[in-house]
Amino acid sequence: MPTNLFYRGYTIFFGLIIASISFAKDSPFRPETGTFPPLAKAHSYQGELTFVDHANRRGSIRIDGDGRFRFAAPSPFALLPYGLVRYHGSPADLRDIPLGTVMHVKAFLPPNPKISAVPVLPTDNRLKKYGNAGTGVAPAENHIYLLEDEPSHCKHLGLVWKLQEVDLKENAGMIIARRESKTGKGQVHLETFSVNTTTRFWRGRERLGITDLINEKIWPRNGKKDLNDQTVFIGITWKPTPGGVFKRFHLSEVWLDELAMERAAQIQNETHKAFIRSRWMPGWVDKVEYGKFGQAKVIVTLFGGMDDSLYADFKKGQKAMLASSENTLKHWAGGTAGTAQMASKGILLEVLKTNKRVPQGSSGIQVSLETDLVTEGFRPGKVIRIRPENWPLLEVPREEYIHHNTDGIEKRFPTPDIFPKN
Amino acid sequence: MESILLKLNFARWAAALHLVLFILVSNARSEEEPFRPESGKFPPLEKAHSYRGELVFVDHANRRGSIRIQGEGMYFRNKPHPFAMLPYGIIRYHNAPAQLRDIPLGTVLHVRAFLPPDPKLSAVPVLPINNRNKTAGYSGKGIAPAENHVILLEDEASHCLREGKVWELKEVNIKDGAGKIIARRESKNSGTKAEEETLTFDAATRIWRGLEKLQVADLVHEGTWPESGKKSLKDQAVLLGITWRPTPDGVFTRFHVSDVWLDDVSIQRAARNQTETHKAFIRSRWMPGWVDAVEYGKFGTATVTATLFGGMDDSLYADFKKDVSAMMNPVENTLKHTHGAYGPRHMASRGPILEVKKLEGKAPLGSSGIQVTFKTDLILEGIRPGRVVRICPGSWPQVQIPREEYLGGNKPEERFPTPDIFPKY
Fold first, then answer.
1. Which residues in chain A are contacts of B206 at CB distance < 8 A?
2. For residues B286 and B277, what is the distance between their CA atoms, to the nearest angstrom?
3. Could B138 and A336 be called an inter-chain contact, meaning their C-beta atoms sit closer than 8 Å?
4. Rounded CA gap, B405 and A140, in Å?
5. What pLDDT, on the 0 to 100 scale, is given for residue B297?
């Protein structure tokens, strides 16, 4: 008996040490202005997108903690100005992601808590237990660096899902699958998902339903079938689960081959390219060299994660427009002529691409613009948007800009008041 | 010289014609009086104010959001206009029942709406009754009607199929995988031709044909559409999904084609998928309806007569059968369950369904026309005539809903969400 007690105490003691070491390794990190934070310092979690305020680049996620998923209240998040969203393996905006999609998150503490657009929580909040929801459901790391859906996450990390077995009854049932590295090395994650008539299957150009697979005798009408480790990409969502199961995710989509996945990525990429061309490329100011009578040379770094063709449009000697923006990436607009009216116009003196490995969030591309009328918002560390001349000149909708005299401070720095307090 | 005079004369005639048209339009507008629905009555659809616009914000847990309404002026300037779904309000997407969460932001929707039934409890801003006639700068008139409580919200495909309309594609003009389509939304039964509309499309436009999901590049590759330049599409009948994007060249209102369904099979398959999504949703959240009558018995027993709300798939209504067991919960106008920490069933009144009656005549929009009579030995406070309930037949799965979809306590702001969430521009 005393030996038993000794071993128990020993185990608890060393367990606590290991836990604190791993927590210290993954200790909360607050990004600094003007520096892209290291991805390795980000806190990781996953959850279901439950709310989106796309105009302010924020929303809520129900985070998968260590308790009962459905008890977890939606946890508000804000995207960092250089934060990336990826959907179907391509760059995306928050508006592109359907509510209910399960997303992977890499996030930090708010860079500046005073102007956080979402509630600021105690830095150790990731360890707080929220009743039946458990711990980990409301981390203070709610400023997102990388937000990606399951296929994007798998592509990014070189992972695939392998379908092991399906068990069906009346066009619905369960699938056992495992996520592993394409190379077959590394960790293997085994999971059971629900599947039903709402699940979309993509094969080449085709969109199929579960009944199509059954009619083709690929899947059984009833009962189990071995799926022989069929390699797929999957889209994941969550639905309330019966039978006392507190957490089980649901397959919203299955891409049965590479072609199907590529076509989905292509459509999302085109959507995002059109979006960025109309809203301009975001970046931040590295340096301003002031000249005389309002003339200045502004050196900016373009944010990363976009399609290469967008960056290729920035060419030396070309005309461009540069506009101050906010952390929400909202434009400023004045008068009646939209965003172009408030922009500084000039020539791209230089476009430099670094050969070094760049941190996520940065494109590694630095452009210098010479303008004869520099505006107040171009200060080192401040966010801007820049448009090369060959992009269409458009007027963005009302909720996506801040009007210089009709909008108050709350439009520049949205408060967390819209989020319900649970 | 003579031609200048002719032109001036023509300009006068044109001005006079515009004035006459303006008067006719204003008269038509004044005839359409604002209508406020009454508690316990499904309002007549013909009294609803109609408009359309782009979905720009969604608070699905409270069944509300914002739409940028197409008015008379420059579309891009229009502020998002908050709306709330009436408890019996119907949403349709891809010609199937839907929830707000199913509709992608940016989708252009057709709206039929009324004044707030009870302005004191409105979850969205209450506006002056004549606000639909207010001119808002460059946005023009009609972008912020007081009729912001929606009875019917439907996407373009659902709207066309409900009204017996179809889009006829006249001409495509393409360059570098993007371009414009000239099309007309025609009534299948009308002899008169509708006005032509120019819509944009691009490489992200989805084209559905049978089982296939195609892109513009596929149609070009097949030779169906030209690689560059114009081609007559010979009034090809299709259904469209419509969205909006900022437009270049000083064009202030032009919509964008997000989806094209080239044949019946493709839209039927989309509808089937959406129907299944909605069926699973209703089975897990229970069928909404309202209470018509309560006959109280002794020691907490009562017989409750309720009308089920309409617009769902028939198979859901078919699960309500005489003598099956059921559960009934009072819910709010947002259709949120109360006290769901242990799941909706924890607080529900239980008992058998004594009768299922199909009411005579055509049911008004919002009603299923199905009335169920339910007997319970423990009646709850919230089950009162005119109040909204959710009811679940015994054959539906018992699940626990997520945190934002039930009331966690007695906080009035959870029961009656305030309009504070909506930004003021």
1. 267
2. 14
3. yes
4. 24
5. 96
In this prediction, residue A245 carries a pLDDT of 82
Element spanning A281, H or E = strand A281-290
Sign for the pseudo-dihedral over CA of A337, A342, A345, A351: negative
**B209-239 pLDDT, tens per residue?**
999 999 999 999 999 999 999 999 999 999 9
Q: Kindly determine whether residue B61 and residue A50, on different chains, have CB atoms separated by under 8 Å.
A: yes
Q: What is the ipTM of this complex?
A: 0.91
Strand partners, A60: A51, A76
CA–CA gap between residue B1 and residue B7 (Å, rounded): 10
Asked if residue A109 has pLDDT above 90, the reply is: yes
B138 touches chain A (CB under 8 A): yes
Cross-chain Cβ contact A212/B80 below 8 Å: no
Q: What is the pLDDT of residue A336?
A: 66
Selection from B388, B396, B292 nearest residue B345 by Cα: B396
Under the banding of pLDDT at 50, 70 and 90, the label for residue B340 is low
**What is the reported pTM?**
0.92
Dist. CA B238–CA B165, nearest whole Å: 10
Give pLDDT, residue B268. Answer: 98
- Alpha carbon separation from A189 to A160, A299, B76, B207 (Å, rounded): 11, 45, 47, 36
Residue among A369, A7, A42, A64 at smallest CA distance from A191: A64
Q: Which residue of chain A has the CA closest to B177?
A: A270
Torsional class of A184: left (φ above 0), alpha (ψ -120 to 50), beta (otherwise)? left
pLDDT of residue A335: 63
Residue by residue, DSSP assigns B375-412 as: EESS--TT--TT-EEEEEETTS------GGGEE-SS-H
Q: B156 in contact with A at a CB cutoff of 8 Å?
A: no
What whole-number distance in Å separates Cα of residue A391 and Cα of residue B248?
Answer: 10
Q: State the count of interchain CB pairs (< 8 A) between A and B.
A: 140
Q: Which CATH superfamily is domain A280-417 in?
A: Efflux pump adaptor protein, beta barrel domain (2.40.30.170)
Average pLDDT, chain B: 91
Topology of domain A26-154 in CATH is OB fold (Dihydrolipoamide Acetyltransferase, E2P) (2.40.50)
The single-letter DSSP state of residue A54 is G
CB B372 within 8 A of CB B353: yes
pLDDT digits (tens, 9 = 90+) for A168-210: 999 999 999 999 999 888 899 999 999 999 999 999 999 999 9
Give the phi and the psi of residue B289 in degrees, each rounded to 5: -170, -175
Residue type, B95: N
Contact B101 A99 (CB under 8 A): yes
Which of B222, B334, B404, B405 is most worth mutating to test chain A (most A CB atoms within 10 A of its CB)? Answer: B404
- Strand, coil or helix: A257: coil
Pick among A51, A62, A87, A210 to test the B interface (most B CBs inside 10 A): A51
